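To: structure subgroup
Subject: Chain for Friday's discussion

All,

I'm putting the inputs and outputs inline so they're searchable in the archive.
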Amino acid sequence: MDTGEYREKACGPLISVIVPVYNIMDYLPRCVQSLKRQSYENLEILLVDDGSTDGTGRLCDELAAGDGRIRALHKENGGTSSARNLGIEEARGEFLGFADSDDYIEPDMYARLCEAIRGKEDWLVQVGRDEVDEQGGQLPGICEIPEEEQSFAAVDFLRELLLHRGDCSFCTKLVPRRLLGEDRFPEEELNEDFHLMIRLLQRTRGVVSLPVCGYHVFYRLGSNTRRKQENDFSRVFADNVNNADMVLGLVEKRYPELRPVAVRFGLYQRLDYLLHIPVGQMRRDHGQYRAIVGFLRRHVRDTVRSPYLTARNKLYLLALTATPKTVRRLHRFLKKLRS
């Protein structure tokens, strides 16, 4: 079905698209323009200014004045999750969508999502996404886009997430508002999508994945998850380890059949942590670093026996278990050599 056919089906339930905004004047107009160009017209666009200091708040008001579908909300700075949560409270739509203020979407994204969710209001529906750099170049895919529509039961989608094959981003999804209940994005977390998705999967039937790339992530140095300097160490790596512990506890309680996959997830997140932490921070008085190495040493058998880790993963994990600083220095050297 082409975009023209989707446009004929524009009338339908109201979708509230929530965009947290902070000091993003250069890129916000492109994001908003991509939302205004949607062939699905029954949208409201909530620009939640999270205490911007560069004039972005005023830009939000100007964009809202030029289109009746746009509302500008203003709050003190509190982070992405708090901005999204205010948007949820103010949203009028039966369905919720989310976009980051430096990203942009295809004109038929919400039309496709709304078409797919009809009759499946107990499900989440998602499109694929890609990533582009500051020069407009295509970067390696984040998540594999299926060749045809796929439906995952909730426990199967959780399994996909734990195998790093699923997409936990809310920006690619259409969410029936009633499924959220009282749940909101956790504040003070960088991986807020993962936290909320894990909770949401416990009350939804599953996730429908569409065979189309509808969302474009803009890779911008300086955003929360990007490192600008060699010695920078993003909090996201520590949060990822905390996520792994959280989901392992859930799995042991509710989905014991997924325990081997959850253990693999925990090992992989710790591998990612140790391959990014600056050597200068690998100290005995660094509590989380010491705990991560201790975890690896207690799970050597799980590392060796896991059918879900590659041979390369196992080699790195076992080497890091024995001599973490030496392996980290070697990895840093090889990375510089390749670049």
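Points worth raising on Friday:
The first strand starts at residue 15 and ends at 21.
The beta strands are 15-21, 43-50, 70-75, 95-98, 104-105, 123-132, 150-153, 173-176, 206-218.

D.
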